Queue: 4 jobs
Job 1
Amino acid sequence: SGLAYTAIPASCSFCRAWVSNAGYSGTALVGGILLMFRRRGTRVGTCTIGICLLLSCAVLVRNFFGLFMLLLMGIILLLCGWKASDFWVSELYATLAATTCLNAITSIRVLYSPGSATVGGVVSTTDASAMQNATLIPYWVWATIWLLLASICTIIGVIVVLEPPPDTTRFEQQTSQDHNVEEQRVQSLMETELS
């Protein structure tokens, strides 16, 4: 959970709904996409995440703690993506992807309570309650939609990266070819001995 201040006018219900929806939907979608690229592109993905963190510092972040932590994480991700072994880059990337997906699932429990929540000592309306106020659809419907979306994205991301079953036909073809070559070699040897 987090708290974001926006410059959205109070009269724009669609804008408030868009921002309230973006956190959970965006986290679920990005996490699922990151999981799908777990098999290839982890080095580029890790460096890209690091660059995005650094760019967010330049454009969005305005407090010392946020700047310090995001700059540190961005630099570490860039260095790991550039210099670490393939194994460690892959593990780091998988951890980031899984954490992103699971964050959308684990932080949803707050949304099933109506009204407000306290984040960082500030009492504010939950995203689900803000969506209810903007759309007149009950908060629990929005919380359920976000939970289902996060679960589906996580499941799809995991299914995409599962190891396929070993291709035994290729092994059988190679074995058959090796056997044929061996037979030809033996036959050639026998013919040379007979002549």
Job 2
Amino acid sequence: FEVAGIQCNGCSNVDISNVEVGPSAHQIPVLATFSNARFLTFYTDNLIPFGFASEPQPDALMALLDEEMSFGDRPDKSMSLQSIFQRLSNAVDLFRYYEYGDEDPSDLSDDQKVLLEEAKAVFTNPWGLTDGSVQYGIFLNRLGTPPTDENFYGAGRESKHVTLLNVKIHDLSANPVEVPSLMTEDGTHMQGP
């Protein structure tokens, strides 16, 4: 497992007895950046166009995707938002099909090979351990959204009446990666993809 050996959301009257939890997974092939990129690709390919289309002036909003922008670490190179989103989508697909799929990378163009190598550098997990911020042997949570203390007007149901007896939790290993800011050697902050 990556996050939790046992997780109960909004459970009640539960006995966890004579259980061994662990070790956690040590062969996780990709970093959380891959999961984030997959979600972001879905968001940019589907949710943004859908949301823009439902607004009173959809063409004006869609035109925002053609706006050019540059990055603090590459001020001389500008790209449209749409081309940035497309590059991310291409990187995710190349990584998925050529690094972990059955596709042969020899038929890729030189540009695609470069993008695949960049994707490998960003998505490949060299440690094999989860790089998320938390790991639990047992996680007893409310039913609902876990990261907040809000009960969302009664939508969540607390876990209650849980008994643990003869439970052994061992060998949980993680390599959390937190990047609050990236900067170049000269101290310039980097931004964007």
Job 3
Amino acid sequence: SRVKCLGTQCTNNRKKDGMEAKMEAVLKKVDVEIQRYHGGSLTGKDILKVVANATFIFDSFAEIFVEHKRENCELTDADIRKLCNEHKLVFLLWDGAFSYARTINPDDHDRAMYKRFVEAAVFCHTKIGCSITPKVHLMLKHVLKQMLSIPGGLGDKMEDWVELMHQTGQRLRVRFRSVKCIKKRAESMARTIQMHSHADIDEQIEEVKKNVSR
């Protein structure tokens, strides 16, 4: 992408006072952490923080890029700020789209606003070089219909629970990786999930935590 290209045209990328260090410092100010175990990318909860602080983050990034730009950089200062603004806009538009998609009992106005936000989000999404993933396709082609056809709307349509299930599934796969029989492994994982979703057990776990913290 043009952002990666820009990185190769900036000086002192990895030094303590370099571009990369300053970018990470900006993210830390809003409690966003790049997860090395996650391939150096952001997890779902951190993406939400970026969305909530998109203006601060990308405005700060623009100043960092301008400061560390090489003398022979192909981009002008205005180009750099425009590029950062385009990325900021994508986050703001997706935030608006998700906000309307989560509306309880959406009316015609909510659906019309969702349509405006999602179409603009996808347009800007592809403009900065991002691909149309299955999730983007669902947002563009199916969510609006579901806001109309599903009683009460889609409600809390966010990825929080999906990210949680990814983490839960990974922990269980590691825990039961030595079980050779696929059926027994699946049954063991299912029993564990059921046990941790039992109200009485959850209540007892919380009681133990309170007693330990006293």
Job 4
Amino acid sequence: NCQLRALNLNYNCIDDCGIIPFAEVLAKNNTLEQLFIAQGNKITNHGWDTLSRALCNIDTINDTYLSNHKVLNLGQTGHFRHQNVELPSDLESSLRLNFNSDFAPIQKILCHHHDWNMSLLIEEDLRFLPIILRWIDVGSVLNQNIAEKTSLSRRQAAALRRRNDITLKVRRNSTILQFVRSMPLIVIDKLRANGM
């Protein structure tokens, strides 16, 4: 298992096709924090989208959870202001969220998955309800410390914290409601299974 924390690939003529293998490896990597690739390469929005997907794959909640939450920097800031590379906003957002790798998966899921379908979990006889609620509660606790763990200003962090608090409360209540609504069906299924 590689323990590499920084890799400088600036000025290597990497283009959109060349970034694909890096994005594929990056999606599974949990040690690399600095990938200097933004300076002096020929990466367009298509290439940045590929890299963004490695940092936050939004296909499913599980894909988002398994995305890379470690990379903090792509070398987009040069030594001089004119060297700065402007990255797409979703990529910048994922990099900012990765400053708190404990909260990054929760925050990314909250940002990109607005409707949680609990039907698959409900079939598991409510075993997952405490786990899901605990996960949301951990998100609430981590959310309180978001200012110290991200590169956001105090004002931005406070706004994000408020938005996250509301989102977490809505998700918690929605999750409980979905499980409560399914309770009669679970009881009826158990009664039928027992021949009653």
